[in-house]
Amino acid sequence: MATIRIDVxxxxxxxxxxxxxxxxxxxxxxELGIYPRxxxxxxxxxxxxxxxxxxxxxxxxxxxxxxxFLEVQPDHINVLSDTAIRATDLDEAKVLEAKRLAEEALRAxxxxxxxxxxxxxxxxxxAQLQAIQKLRKNR
Length: 139
What we know:
CATH topology of the largest domain: ATP Synthase, domain 1
Distance between the termini: 24 Å
Number of domains: 2
Structural class: alpha+beta
Strand content: 35-45%
Order of helices and strands: EEEEEEEEHH
Largest sheet: 8 strands, mixed
CATH superfamily of the largest domain: F0F1 ATP synthase delta/epsilon subunit, N-terminal
Shape: elongated
């Protein structure tokens, strides 16, 4: 089967680099499926899980991204995100505690800008929890 090269990069480090049979990403208008020889594409992605089907492995590699950009060329995929974490490195207890604190902060806020900031944080934490649940389901 044909493969496509993928690089997932955060602001701090390269998170994943390798070959893939296909990749599924959280696009802003819905999930995107990318196979080898895909048409060139540049788009924004939202917070969620990047699923990578590695040749010869039954279990997919998963990386949580907190939004960013996707560049697709026929033989290469670049995922650029400010925050990217291997799904196996996500800590459910920490995410749940951060979500609880954000929900408390939301109730205490009154200014629109503060509310919007906390809502964005809650959205990212919910996406992290979904990544943890997908990882648990696939195991």
